Amino acid sequence: MEPLNDPGITVEQFTTTARAIEREVSTLIVGQHEIVRQTLVTLLAGGNALLEGVPGLGKTMLVRTLAQTLACKFSRIQFTPDLMPADIVGTNILLEDASGQRRFQFEPGPVFANLVLADEINRATPKTQSAMLEVMQEHSVTVAKTTHRLAEPFFVLATQNPLEMEGTYPLPEAQLDRFFFKLNVAYPSADELVMIADRTTGARTPQPQRVAAAPTIVAMQQLARGVPIAPHIVQAAARLIRATQPQDADAPASVKQYVTWGSSPRGMQALILAGKITALLAERYNVALDDLRAAALPALRHRLILNFEAQAEGVTPDRIVSELIETVLDETNT
């Protein structure tokens, strides 16, 4: 089959490569199939992902394993309270040559990679967290009035622990909005715990093989954007985003009661892009409502700001988004 938009890769090559990545990641990561799929969707959309889960669930291992399957440059940043912005993006250093001439030279920081693991990102101060804003949105770094472009593909996968909140700095809404997906990592089942023990405590640990290079990932990203989407599907996504705004006349009662502010237009972009990639992974060449349903929770859960009443009553963003899926998308399907 011919490419949808001539990006240099066919639909068959797209699905074959995506399945190979998932297969290689699964050689080491037990279970978490939905998290692996959603992480892959984020990568192919050219976005960033935030993984939240208690310690020991394999969040960091997932990122490392994904990096092993790609012939791309990998970098890990351990966020701590004493980390400074220059430690992330880099800085100008003064050099002196043999003739005694001095000049400034930019020394790139660890963000100059294709896949960046921002481990425990909420442990850094807001000043340091702000250094990631331009990196995540613009894929560039500006130091001393000079802008340095990052190599493509570029992907930030950040982790945070929801339990140990003492000494942490919650991510500001502006930074949360720059994450394409927020993924909640669940605790493994008893059978999965047995498999984890078998794979990680034996004499040999499985080693994933590299199955894709950077140009291939870029071509897959371009192909995904060429997937057609019907006007009524776009309208359904727009209604879903509008329904998250409590000031909207058609917003459900739960949104008006518990939500202070709803999703930004980036939520709409995430829904559409994720829908296109999900359709391709299912070997369909057009976006369906089911693709929007699959993307709604990870795309919107971190973009809803709940009020104090919601926190007092234990209402979560996932509950609100799930109700919106039923009231907006399911009505569209009838």
CATH homologous group name of the largest domain:
P-loop containing nucleotide triphosphate hydrolases
- Classify the helix fraction into a percent range: 40-55%
Name of the CATH architecture of the largest domain: 3-Layer(aba) Sandwich
Instruction: Describe the strand arrangement of the main beta sheet, using strand numbers.
Output: 3-6-9-1-10
The termini sit apart by 33 Å
Our Rg estimate from Cα atoms comes to: 21 Å
CATH class categorisation of the largest domain: Alpha Beta
The count of DSSP E runs of length 2 or more, i.e. the number of strands, is 13
- Judged by helices, strands and strand pairing, the structural class is alpha/beta
Overall shape: it is globular
Give helix and strand order, one letter per element, not per position: HHEHEEHEEEHHEEEHEHEHHHEHHEHH
Q: Indicate the proportion of strand residues.
A: 15-25%
- Give the rounded overall mean pLDDT: 84
CATH topology of the largest domain: Rossmann fold
Low-confidence stretches: 1-6
What is the makeup of the main sheet?
A: 5 strands, parallel
